[in-house]
Amino acid sequence: MDGPALDGREDGFSGLPGNLMMWILILGELAVFGVAFLGFSVARALDPVAFGSGQAHLNGPLGAVNTMVLITSGFIAARGVAAGRRGRIAGARAAMLGAAAVGSVFLAVKAVEYAATLGAGLSIDSGGFFTLYFLLTGFHALHVVMGIVVLAIVARWPSVENLETGAAFWHMVDLIWVILYPLVYLIR
């Protein structure tokens, strides 16, 4: 008979980094966003002209900047996990706080984009495209806020499991944006 997993878990999921409950949450969140992305795709297929017109009003370059911001932040979080695994607690804390700070840049850029869109007279009531645009990007931005909070908490209590758990959530936020950006901004 094998001994217990090195991380103390004997639940059969010891290969997953971080806490199993976070992975269950992540799968649930991915399912919710997946359904939302499917709904967006169906709505676009039903009204491609209106959706193409709506996309023309978006700031694709700001969306690209935000993509790079989240990828960079995810890299910093991964470096924090690596530092924690090597016992470099100060480095892990700094990396998680750095990832949170860079994640905050995403929110600032998104605020600029929303201000420009709203300033052009386009709102959640400006047709199906903008209803879905604001709902999808707003729901994602809420997850960015939650992720920043998680990263800050993990920086305060940087056990390896906490670091892995926080980074897993943050990478889910990254992954959702990497799908959302081309779906909403680029694909015609």
Automatic annotation (TrEMBL):
Every Heme-copper oxidase subunit III family profile domain range: 1-188
Keyword Cell wall biogenesis/degradation: no
Record-linked PANTHER family: CYTOCHROME C OXIDASE SUBUNIT III (PTHR11403), NITRIC OXIDE REDUCTASE SUBUNIT E (PTHR11403:SF6)
Organism in which the protein naturally occurs: Azospirillum doebereinerae
Family: Belongs to the cytochrome c oxidase subunit 3 family.
BP GO annotations: aerobic electron transport chain
Keyword Transmembrane helix part of the UniProt annotation: yes
Name of this protein: Cytochrome c oxidase subunit 3 family protein
Pfam families, sorted: COX3
PROSITE patterns named among the record's database cross-references: COX3
One cellular component (GO) term of this entry: plasma membrane
Annotated keywords: Membrane, Transmembrane, Transmembrane helix
Entry membrane topology: Multi-pass membrane protein
One GO MF term attached to the UniProt entry: cytochrome-c oxidase activity
Residue stretches spanning the membrane: 20-43, 63-82, 94-112, 132-155, 167-187
Record's subcellular location: Cell membrane; Membrane
